[in-house]
Specification:
The complex is a heterodimer.
Chain A lengths: L1 H31 L1 H9 L1 H18 E5 L6 E5 L5 E2 L9 H16 L4 E7 L6 H21 L7 E7 L10 H7 L1 E8 L1
Chain B lengths: L1 H8 L28 E5 L3 E2 L7 H15 L3 E3 L28 E10 L2 E10 L4 E11 L3 H17 L8 E6 L6 E6 L6 E2 L7 E6 L5 E6 L6 E6 L4 E6 L5 E6 L5 E8 L2 E8 L6 E2 L7 E6 L5 E6 L6 E6 L6 E2 L7 E6 L6 E7 L2 E7 L7 E2 L7 E6 L5 E9 L1 E8 L6 E2 L7 E6 L6
Parallel strand pairs in B: 1-3, 1-4, 2-4
Antiparallel strand pairs in B: 4-5, 5-6, 7-8, 7-30, 8-9, 10-11, 11-12, 12-13, 14-15, 15-16, 16-17, 18-19, 19-20, 20-21, 22-23, 23-24, 24-25, 26-27, 27-28, 28-29
Helix pairs in contact in B: 2-3
Classes of the chains: A alpha+beta, B mainly beta.
C-alpha cells in the first residue's frame, strides 16, 4: 500500500517538474528573440489599438443573414473566405490551406465565436453522394482549422451537397465556384 | 385515407371468370428485350344509364392512354374496326375481325348516377376466338380515374399474366415553387399533389411499402433531419435528428425499418433505424463515404454506394453489414442503386462520356445493360412494383424532369411537365391490393 502511494506520489512529482519545465521553456522563448518580445510586450497601447481596429473591421465585415426555409439567423463575415475543391475531391489545396490559415487567425482572435462550416458540391454527381461529399469537405476543413489551434467546440459542420450553388450555371466556371466550404458565424 | 376509402367503396365483383382455366398462352413476353406490342381494339363503352355526356370519352381517354404508355399494347384506331354491327357484340362476331390486325378486343359498359359510378369490361381473344375474362367495378364518381386504372390493371393481367400498375404513383422532388418540395403524381401524369410546403430544402422521398407514408430529408431546422409524412392523415413527424446527416432513407421490404445515411466520425455511413426512429444500428465502418442504400426484396441484403476504392461504386452487403462485395468495376462514377422488386436486377446511374446514364446489373455483378442513350444526365432510377418499369430523372430536354420507361429501356416518356426541375423519383407500392 505504502509502496504504491510512493509510486503515485513520485509520478505526480515528476509530472509537476515536467510541467514547470515546460512553462519555463515557453517563457524563455520570447526572451531569446528580442524583436518578437518588443512586438508582443513593448507597446501595449499600439497593440490594443490594433485589436480595436481589427474588432471594428470584423464588426464592419459582419452581415446578418437567413436562409429561406431554414430556421435561425446567422452572421457572415467577408473576412472568413470560402475555400474551393477539385471535382469529387475533399483534400485541401495549397490555396485552400492559405485561406484557412487566414480564417484561423481571425477565429483565434475571437475565441468565443461559434462557426459552422458548410460543405458544398457542384451539381454533377448524384444528390445523395454529394451530401456525403459535402460532409467530407466540411470535415476536412474543420480538421485543418483545429490543427491551427481553433477550438473544436467552436466548429460545427453541415453538408448542403449540391443544394446551394453560388452560381446556378452549368459550366466549369460555375462548378469550380460551387465546390466550396463556406463559413457562417452562429454566435460570437 | 382517400385511397383506402376508395378501395373500401369499390366493390370488386367477378362477373365472369376466365373461360378456360388451363389458359397458358403468352401474349407478350415482357422479359424480352425487344417487346412486340399486342394490337388491341377498344370499343366505345356503352352508356347503360343516362350518364353525363363526355363520360364515355373520358373513360376511353384514360384507358387508351394507360394501355398505350405501358408499351405492351398497340391501340387499333376506330377507322380499322370492321363495319359489321355485331363486331363488338357479346360475344363479338369473330369472323368480321379476321381481316383486322387486332388480336384482342375490349368491350364494356358503364353507368353513372347520383355520384356513383359502375363499369364493366370484357376481353376477347380475336385470334383464338375466346373470351378471356372481365370484371365489373362500382365506386364513387370521384374515384373514376382510379377505377379505370384498375380496369387497365386487369386487362394487363389477362394479357401478360401479371397485374398492371396503372393506379400507382410516383413521389419526387420539384423546384416549381422556387425551392425543393416533395410532390406525388399518378403513373399517367395526372393528379399532381404537393406533399411538403415548408419552403426549405426537401430531399429523397421514399414511399413506405404499405403506401401510407413518405419518408424524406428536410433542412427545416438547419440539419438534414429525417421526416415522415403520413399521406392518410396529411401529418408530418420529425423522426431522426442525428447531427450531420439523416438522408437517403430506404424502407425495408416489411416496412419495419429504414436504412439511411448518417454521419459518423466525419463521414457518411449506412445505418438502420426502426420505423419509429429508435435503435440506430451502424452497418458500415470506413474512412470513406457511404450513400444511397437500397434493400433486396427479401430484406436480406443492402446495396449502396461507397467511394472506399477511390471513386463512387456500387457494393452489396448483408443487412447486418457483413459480406461486403463490390458490384461495379467499369466507369468512373456509379451511384444511386435501386434493387428491383423481383430481385434479379439492380438499376443505377453511371457516368459515361461525361454524362450519367441508367444501367442495370444482376446482383452478382454480371450482365450490365445500358438503358438510356440520350443527351443530358439520366439519374435516380426507381422500379415500379411489378419491376416492369422504371422512373428516373433526366435533363435531356434542358431542365431536369421525371421520365418513365419499360424495364428494358423501351418506350421512354416524360412524366412531369412543370416549370421546375424534378429529381429523386420514388415509385409507390401497389395501391390495388
Amino acid at each position: 500500500m505504502v509502496k504504491r502511494f510512493c509510486i503515485v506520489m513520485g509520478v505526480i512529482l515528476s509530472l509537476m517538474v515536467m510541467v514547470s519545465c515546460a512553462k519555463k521553456t515557453v517563457k524563455e522563448e520570447p526572451l531569446g528573440t528580442g524583436k518578437a518580445e518588443e512586438k508582443a510586450w513593448g507597446k501595449p497601447g499600439e497593440e490594443a489599438e490594433r485589436a480595436r481596429i481589427e474588432e471594428k473591421s470584423l464588426e464592419a465585415s459582419l452581415e446578418r443573414k437567413k436562409y429561406a426555409g431554414i430556421e435561425g439567423v446567422f452572421l457572415e463575415s467577408s473576412l472568413l473566405k470560402d475555400i474551393h475543391f477539385g471535382f469529387d475531391r475533399y483534400d485541401l489545396t495549397p490555396d485552400a490551406r492559405k485561406t484557412l490559415s487566414q480564417n484561423a487567425e481571425l477565429l483565434l482572435k475571437h475565441p468565443r465565436a461559434k462557426i459552422q462550416i458548410e460543405g458544398h458540391c457542384d451539381e454533377r454527381g448524384t444528390i445523395e453522394y454529394n451530401l456525403a461529399l459535402g460532409e467530407r469537405r466540411a470535415h476536412s476543413t474543420k480538421g485543418y482549422l483545429i490543427s491551427l489551434g481553433v477550438s473544436p467546440d467552436n466548429i460545427s459542420t453541415i453538408s448542403y451537397g449540391e443544394e446551394m450553388p453560388l452560381d446556378p450555371r452549368h459550366n466549369e466556371g460555375a462548378w469550380s465556384k460551387n465546390r466550396r466550404a463556406h463559413f457562417i458565424i452562429l454566435s460570437k | 385515407m382517400h385511397l383506402r376509402r376508395i378501395s373500401l367503396l369499390a366493390c370488386l365483383l367477378w362477373t365472369f371468370i376466365t373461360a378456360e382455366s388451363g389458359w397458358t398462352r403468352v401474349y407478350i413476353d415482357i422479359e424480352q428485350p425487344e417487346l412486340q406490342p399486342l394490337p388491341i381494339a377498344i370499343a366505345q363503352f356503352e352508356d347503360r344509364g343516362r350518364s353525363q355526356p363526355n363520360l364515355g370519352r373520358e373513360i376511353m381517354k384514360i384507358l387508351t392512354n394507360d394501355l398505350t404508355i405501358s408499351g405492351f399494347f398497340e391501340i387499333i384506331p376506330r377507322s380499322e374496326f370492321p363495319e359489321e354491327s355485331n363486331a363488338i357484340a357479346d360475344p363479338p362476331d369473330y369472323e368480321s375481325w379476321s381481316p383486322s390486325r387486332a388480336e384482342a378486343l375490349v368491350t364494356g359498359g358503364y353507368y353513372s348516377r347520383e355520384g356513383q359510378f359502375a363499369i364493366e369490361f370484357r376481353l376477347f381473344d380475336l385470334v383464338d376466338k375466346t373470351f378471356l375474362g372481365g370484371k365489373s367495378y362500382k365506386a364513387s364518381i370521384k374515384g373514376l380515374r382510379n377505377i379505370i386504372h384498375r380496369v387497365a390493371n386487369e386487362i394487363t393481367y389477362l394479357i401478360t399474366g401479371e397485374k398492371g400498375i396503372f393506379d400507382t404513383k410516383i413521389a419526387f422532388v420539384s423546384t416549381m415553387t422556387g425551392n425543393k418540395e416533395v410532390y406525388t403524381i399518378d403513373f399517367d401524369g395526372h393528379n399532381l399533389r404537393q406533399i411538403t410546403n415548408n419552403g426549405s430544402i426537401n430531399l429523397s422521398p421514399a414511399w413506405s411499402p404499405d403506401g401510407r407514408i413518405i419518408a424524406f430529408t428536410s433542412y427545416i431546422k438547419r440539419n438534414p433531419d429525417l421526416y415522415l409524412f403520413d399521406l392518410t392523415r396529411s401529418a408530418q413527424v420529425r423522426l431522426s435528428t442525428n447531427p450531420g446527416l439523416n438522408a437517403a432513407p430506404a424502407w425495408s421490404p416489411d416496412g419495419t425499418k429504414m436504412a439511411l445515411m448518417m454521419r459518423k466520425e466525419g463521414n457518411a455511413e449506412i445505418f438502420i433505424i426502426n420505423r419509429d426512429g429508435t435503435n440506430p444500428k451502424r452497418l458500415t465502418k470506413s474512412w470513406s463515404s457511404e450513400a444511397s442504400p437500397t434493400w433486396s426484396p427479401d430484406g436480406r441484403k443492402i446495396a449502396f454506394v461507397s467511394d472506399r476504392a477511390g471513386s463512387p461504386q456500387i457494393y452489396t452487403m448483408d443487412r447486418g453489414g457483413k459480406n461486403m462485395k463490390r458490384l461495379t468495376f467499369s466507369g468512373p462514377y456509379n451511384a444511386s442503386p435501386s434493387w428491383s422488386l423481383k430481385g434479379d436486377r439492380i438499376a443505377y446511374c453511371g457516368r459515361m462520356d461525361g454524362r450519367f446514364e441508367i444501367f442495370t446489373i444482376s446482383p452478382d455483378g454480371m450482365w450490365i445493360r445500358r438503358l438510356t442513350e440520350y443527351s443530358g444526365n439520366n439519374e435516380s432510377p426507381t422500379w415500379s412494383p411489378d419491376s416492369r418499369f422504371m422512373a428516373f430523372s433526366s435533363t435531356r430536354g434542358g431542365r431536369s424532369h421525371i421520365y418513365v420507361m419499360n424495364a428494358n429501356g423501351a418506350n421512354q416518356r416524360r412524366l412531369t411537365s412543370t416549370r421546375g426541375n424534378e429529381s429523386s423519383p420514388s415509385w409507390s407500392p401497389r395501391m390495388d391490393r
